[in-house]
Design goal:
The complex is a heterodimer of chains A (485) and B (522). Chain A is 76% helix and 1% strand. Chain A is mostly helical and 485 residues long. Mean pLDDT of chain A is 88; it is low at 435-446. Chain B is mainly α and 522 residues long. The model of chain B is unreliable at 496-522 (pLDDT under 50). A two-stranded antiparallel sheet of chain B has the order 1-2. In chain B, helix 3 (84-103) runs parallel beside helix 15 (329-360), helix 5 (135-144) runs antiparallel to helix 7 and helix 17 packs parallel to helix 19 (453-471). Classes of the chains: A mainly alpha (485), B mainly alpha (522). The interface between A and B is medium-sized, with 29 and 31 residues.
Chain lengths: 485, 522
């Protein structure tokens, strides 16, 4: 470890330092705004410091971590998402009676985990990053202990996540026992080889690792935890799970398994195809049944992981660009949607039933329009980033002639459109008179917990949504220059 | 550049209408009208030189063009261009846009600014569809016009507006995503063959993908346009959407949105896939004839006046499909005339039904009757529009349907004969509508104020346009001719293959003399 190495990992070091200072600061004196500003500054500084490894080019820092354009792009994306989540959380937490400061420290540790994940090259850093992220999320999900749903969601996340970690560890052990290496690049090579009796142990190990990843991404059939967790967790945390956690793991998956396409007869390819088809269909079909916007978004995000798998399976440089672009669009959209939910949520509960949203346009025209724009983006309608994301996923799929996957994508996004439209139309419906609503009366103009800075972030997200949707040329250039180099 | 201005003016009008609503709803309505009149002026600027020169130099198809790099890494360009066909449809768009704003003048009272925002954005999307020459851009507009239209139905519509709006969106979106996949596949096929990755229409026209893949891609385009047109089988969204939409929305839906399907077939499905299109010409023509009869039969059975008018669209657009796939010069020209004529007559009928509903709060035929005595002006207007719709000689629809049937006769006398039954059926449903609403015994309590000055102005314009198209369609045919000829050229490239289109060339002569024929008849 040399001095240059240290300067390379400065962004990670800043995050770690920020978290430590945060904890120590809380021990000395509690201050909501103080911790918030510290977190925000740490994240912005870490984002800015990405320039140092970027200038140095493709570098390995020890055998555990690799800073190349790919890792730096995703780190930047994740940090930016974390900034948005932090700001969202500020308005959200302000109105609550719980202790608030640790929340921000946990966001920092979660981001540290994400950053290690996307730059890891080795089982050790992979597992370390993943656990750092997951453990932070355990606490974050169950943060509002006074609310029963939060604790329930925390447990529901804890058990599958812990199980999947066990799967991952056992898989890694098996692979190591067979191959004698812990480098992730060897894993990809292993996946590309033919089935052989002699390789059986390693293959079983590889399968278990992929199952572990499948859990984290909530791919079908490992998706059952998602809806409850999304529903129960505080809205900013849900945004964090939907974006940073899934995005970081998908980036890792793409980096090391992106070459699967070379052999379409490869059994892993077939397994992934089945999983992708199931994920798209199950995600969209189950979303149809939901009466809660957060649950609906949970299933929608499952479906979006399925769309991403289509781009992922297409393979090649185009697939990398497609996934990176899709994730960018998905991040903007998801953060925006949860940002609106967080801004609308009152003290007692999150603002998430579909009936809550009836006639929202009359009370909060700006937020309602913003939510509608985000939902259109999730549905992939032009002028929004989501359209170009879907365009890229289809482009990659068509290029590699994955006709089955492309057609399932088309069919399931039509299904998906239905439930997005249902929410959008509710926004513009007149509010039912209390008498005819029968019990399900909407909470009396719930006090939105937004803040000025939260509004600024939402506005930035909306602008980004439209900018990426209308003039994506520079963004595509940038992605091709960094990620798919 | 003028094409870009068309878009800018329409969008600016939309935003102005939206903003002005804050102070005055009337200002909002006027803003929308002013923007559309400005569009009118722009179109005249486009059309005037064409009129002076009688026609473009031979071989030249495009009147105006605008080309600008948009998403460079993918080879996507912001490429607009208009030829005669586009110009005619653009004129129809602006005209019906004015009609729609005027028809909503008193009907829409809630959220007036947002209504005009949605209406004008739909029109902007349609203008984009009629001018885009980059396939990505075309798809972009194609999807974009759905969103404001969806809101028009879902927010300002009638009783069952939400299911109708969602059904409309899902059907069209399902079809268009298939087209999107086909566009992407063509992008790669074209790129692989030529080394140039772009979505440029003019380059794609040069190379037709051969074999099965070409056939499947053509089907992707065809299904998308068929849903919009609509072709029988995928038409079920239409009656619901048309019935539930507010009057202005119905006018735009029937008058313009359906035309984008026909335009897509003429501009994209046929020239990009001449060989594959020739293969499905027969099934498509049979579907067209089925649509003529089916739409007419169902129209007659409707208890709801608006639904009745909606089903007539299925019937009229059946003629368009028949004409397009018959592929002769006459049939194609006829199809284009029907596009305009149907837009005017059906748009007008929707305004009549909307005016009735606004006054009497019902559209049910069994609750109406004998209205002629209390509202003779509306009765006369409705009678005229119904006669136009049933294809009375001398009015616009007759010209189009006659040309289509004549053109089809050269290809298949049988289909032309069956299609002609549509004339009889359309008389039945049109006269039935007039009979049930305006004639018969007057029902007690059913009486209302007759048409006012604003409504009479817009109806006179529609009537004048229908008469002009019916009596002297030659300027329209002249304007459309270069487009039709270039279509026929693309079809003759596959002449050696058997199919209905092999007879195209032999049937060109009568088209030139049509003006004499039409005038001599009267």
């Amino acid at each position: 470890m040399t001095l240059t190495d240290l300067s390379q990992i400065l962004p990670l070091a800043i995050l770690a330092a920020g978290a430590t200072v945060g904890v120590l600061g809380i021990a000395a004196r509690r201050s909501h705004i103080g911790t918030f500003v510290l977190t925000l500054c740490t994240l912005i500084l870490a984002l800015a410091m990405l320039r140092i490894p970027w200038r140095a080019g493709d570098e390995y820092v020890t055998t555990l971590i690799r800073f190349d354009g790919y890792a730096i792009f995703f780190m930047g994306l994740l940090f930016a998402a974390a900034i948005a989540v932090t700001v969202m959380a500020y308005g959200y937490m302000r109105g609550r009676d719980t202790i608030r400061e640790e929340f921000y420290v946990l966001i920092l540790t979660a981001m540290l985990g994400c950053a290690v994940l996307v730059s890891s090259t080795h089982f050790v850093s992979f597992f370390l990053g993943l656990e750092l992220l997951t453990v932070s999320l355990y606490v974050l999900i169950a943060y509002s202990r006074s609310r029963q749903t939060d604790v329930e969601a925390g447990i529901k996340y804890f058990i599958p996540a812990a199980t999947s970690s066990a799967f991952l560890l056992f898989g890694m052990a098996l692979v190591y026992a067979q191959t004698g290496t812990m480098a992730l690049s060897e894993l990809a090579a292993l996946a590309a080889t033919r089935w052989q009796q002699a390789n059986l142990v390693a293959f079983v190990g590889l399968g278990m690792i992929l199952i572990g990843i499948g859990f984290k991404l909530a791919l079908v059939p490992f998706h059952f935890w998602a809806a409850d967790v999304y529903e129960g967790a505080p809205a900013p945390v849900t945004a964090l799970i939907a974006t940073a956690s899934k995005g970081a793991i998908f980036a890792l998956l793409l980096r090391y398994f992106g070459a699967l396409h070379v052999e379409m007869t490869n059994p892993f390819f077939s397994v992934f195809t089945v999983v992708a088809v199931a994920t798209m269909l199950v995600g969209n079909l189950l979303a149809l049944l939901q009466a809660d916007v957060k649950r609906l978004l949970a299933y929608s995000s499952i479906a979006h992981m399925g769309y991403l798998l289509v781009a992922f399976l297409a393979g090649g440089r185009l697939a990398v660009t497609a996934v990176a672009f899709y994730l960018l669009a998905y991040f903007i959209t998801t953060l925006g949607a949860f940002g609106v939910i967080a801004a609308l949520s009152g003290k007692e509960r999150d603002f998430s039933g579909v009936q809550d949203y009836r006639g929202l346009v009359f009370d909060h025209p700006v937020l309602a329009t913003m939510l509608a724009a985000m939902l259109f983006s999730l549905a992939g309608i032009p002028l929004t980033a989501g359209f170009l994301g879907k365009f890229y996923a289809l482009l990659a799929g068509v290029r590699s002639s994955l006709w089955l996957l492309v057609l399932v994508l088309v069919a399931s996004s039509v299904i998906g459109l239905f439930y997005y439209l249902r929410v959008i139309v509710a926004l513009y419906q007149p509010v039912p008179a209390p008498s005819e609503a029968g019990g399900a009366v909407r909470p009396p103009a719930s006090v939105p917990s937004g803040s000025l800075i939260g509004g600024v972030v939402l506005a930035v997200l909306l602008l980004a949504l439209i900018w990426v949707g209308v003039y994506p040329g520079p963004v595509i250039h940038f992605i091709e220059y960094t990620v798919a180099r | 550049m003028i094409l870009l201005w068309l878009l800018i003016v329409t969008v600016a009008g939309a935003i102005a209408a939206w903003v002005l609503d804050r102070w005055s709803t009337t200002a909002s309505r006027w803003a929308a009208l002013v923007a559309l009149f400005a569009d009118c002026v722009l179109l005249l600027v486009l059309w005037a030189p064409l009129r002076v020169a009688q026609r473009l130099p031979p071989g030249e198809q495009w009147i105006a063009e605008f080309d600008w790099s948009w998403i460079a890494p993918l080879g996507v360009r912001f490429h607009l261009a208009a030829d005669g066909l586009s110009l005619l449809l653009l004129a129809l768009t602006v005209f019906l846009g004015i009609a729609a704003v005027s028809a909503s003048w008193t009907e829409i009272q809630a959220r007036v600014g947002a209504f005009h925002l949605c209406l004008l954005l739909t029109l902007a999307g349609i203008i984009g569809v009629f001018t885009a020459l980059d396939l990505f851009l075309f798809y972009f507009f194609w999807e974009l016009m759905l969103v404001p239209m969806y809101f028009l139905i879902a927010i300002w519509g009638h009783e069952n507006r939400v299911p109708a709006a969602i059904k409309f969106f899902l059907f069209t979106q399902g079809g268009s995503l298939l087209m999107f996949v086909a566009i992407l596949a063509l992008y790669f096929i074209h790129g692989r063959d030529t080394g140039v990755y772009s979505f440029d229409y003019r380059q794609w026209v040069q190379t037709e993908p051969t074999g099965t893949i070409g056939w499947w891609l053509m089907l992707g385009f065809f299904i998308s346009f068929a849903v919009k047109l609509p072709v029988v089988g995928v038409h079920t969204w239409l009656p619901d959407a048309h019935t539930e939409a507010p009057t202005g929305g119905s006018v735009v839906l029937a008058g313009l949105l359906l035309k984008t399907g026909a335009y897509g077939l003429l501009r994209f499905a046929l020239p990009l896939f001449p060989a594959a299109s020739a293969e499905i010409a027969w099934p498509a023509m049979i579907l067209g004839v089925a649509g003529i009869l089916y739409g007419a039969f169902l129209a007659f059975a409707q208890p709801d006046a608006k639904r009745l008018v909606a089903y007539t669209s299925v019937s009229h657009l059946g003629f368009v499909l028949l004409g397009i796939y018959a592929g002769t010069n006459l049939a194609l020209q006829g199809a284009i005339v029907i596009l305009l004529a149907h837009g005017l007559s059906t748009g007008g009928l929707f305004i009549v039904v909307g005016a009735l509903q606004e006054r009497l709060h019902t559209r049910r035929l069994d609750e109406l009757g004998g209205l002629w005595s209390s509202m003779p002006r509306m009765g006369g207007v409705a009678m005229f529009l119904a006669l136009a719709s049933l294809g009375l000689p001398g009015l616009a629809n007759f010209v189009g349907e006659f040309l289509v049937l004549t053109g089809t006769f050269a290809v298949s006398p049988t289909l032309a004969a069956i299609g002609a039954i549509g004339f009889i059926l359309s008389s039945v449903y049109s006269l039935w509508l007039i009979y049930r609403v305006f004639q018969g015994p007057q029902r007690p309590g059913v009486a209302a104020v007759d048409l006012g000055a604003r409504e009479m102005v817009i109806f006179s314009l529609i009537i004048a346009a229908i008469l002009w198209l019916g009596v002297y369609p030659q300027p329209v045919l002249n304007t459309a001719r270069p487009s039709v000829e270039s279509l026929l050229n693309s079809a003759t490239r596959v002449q050696d293959e058997p199919g209905p289109q092999s007879q195209t060339v032999s049937f060109e002569a009568p088209a030139v003399g049509y003006d004499r024929l039409a005038q001599g008849d009267l």
